[in-house]
Amino acid sequence: MSKSANPDSAPESAPEGPSERIAKRMARAGLCSRRDAERWIEAGRVEVNGEKLTSPAFTVTGSDEIIVDGKPLPMIERTRLWLHNKRSGTVTTAKDPEGRRTVFETLPNDLPRVLTVGRLDITTEGLLLLTNDGGLARALELPSTGWLRRYRVRAHGKVTQEQLDALADGIAVDGVLYGSIEAQLEREQGSNVWLTFAMREGKNREVKKVLAALDLDVNRLIRISYGPFQLGDLAEGAVVEVRSRTLRDQLGSKLVEKSGANFDAPLAANAPKIDQQKAKKPPRKIDPLKRLDTKRGRLDDAVDDARGKGSRKAGKPNRSKPNRKGPRADRRR
């Protein structure tokens, strides 16, 4: 624990603990990403033991006093992870220079400061991982972690399964080499096709660029899973936390060590509890009247079956005149 996190309660002979780069410490505290931390340091916003830093090439220990923008670095809390169903039309950034709505503006107010694991384009929707641990965010973003990202894609154009199978060997687009991709043709819908896409790299706009090379124009892109975590029935815009035990099990010991995830640190005093039931999609309300098929042929068959006269499709059509008095006579009785 950093001495600056709670100087009043820190013991006088606090152990220094393991040393690490200042940017990594700031990221682990959930203050920002490592890249942002390096920018903040170069901008003179960070002090260590009363000295302003000018370079991120600086190592700190648990006994160092770290000040960011005049405030002590927040204490490192327990590593946490949330699943978020991102809406289309929101950008995955803290501040957008064009004034567009950001993902963070749509999150619940009682959620602590979080970072996103990677990014999704403004028009891409679906599963976005959020965490309070910058070290974990960085580890999960790396292609070397090998976590599979799955998408459902709707695209304008035509493609064959044979063309999609060829993506398993990788493809080069505009000088950029993309690794193996698993792609399946689900169905055709008018002039569009629905596909499932799975890859482990997740390079910038990879799905759209690869499909553009196959003369397909993506008009809807939904991420449905990231590693072991699934979008499932999470409602649009909702956020749900992964339980600590589940998170630790899914990460595994190697990834926990690699990311520096801390499951022994305390939770924040005001840690919010997200209602997992409210985060689920509400059940669909189906109007029974909409189930009626009003197409002439099928409706006549249903009427004939109800009268015990058989289907018009099976055998000769029933040419007898309908009994118009029947229904009225039944009502009079």
Model description:
The chain is of the alpha+beta class and 333 residues long. It has three domains: 1-76, Structural Genomics Hypothetical 15.5 Kd Protein In mrcA-pckA Intergenic Region, Chain A (Roll); 81-259, Pseudouridine synthase (2-Layer Sandwich), CATH 3.30.2350.10; 288-324, no CATH class. The protein contains eight helices and 17 strands. Helix 1 (22-28) packs across helix 2 (34-42) and helix 3 (134-141) crosses helix 6 (244-259). The longest helix is centred in the last third of the chain and has 16 residues, at 244-259. Residues 1-16, 285-322 and 324-333 have low confidence and may be disordered.
Keywords:
alpha+beta, 21% helix, Pseudouridine synthase, 333 residues, elongated, Structural Genomics Hypothetical 15.5 Kd Protein In mrcA-pckA Intergenic Region, Chain A, 3 domains, disordered N terminus, nine-stranded mixed β-sheet, 8 helices, disordered C terminus
Radius of gyration computed on alpha carbons? 29 Å
Q: Which sequence of SSEs, written as H and E, runs from N to C?
A: EHHEEEEEEEEHEHEEEEHEEEHHH
Number of strands: 17
Q: What integer is the average pLDDT?
A: 79
Per CATH, the class of the largest domain reads Alpha Beta
Distance between the termini: 86 Å
Largest sheet: 9 strands, mixed
Structural class: alpha+beta
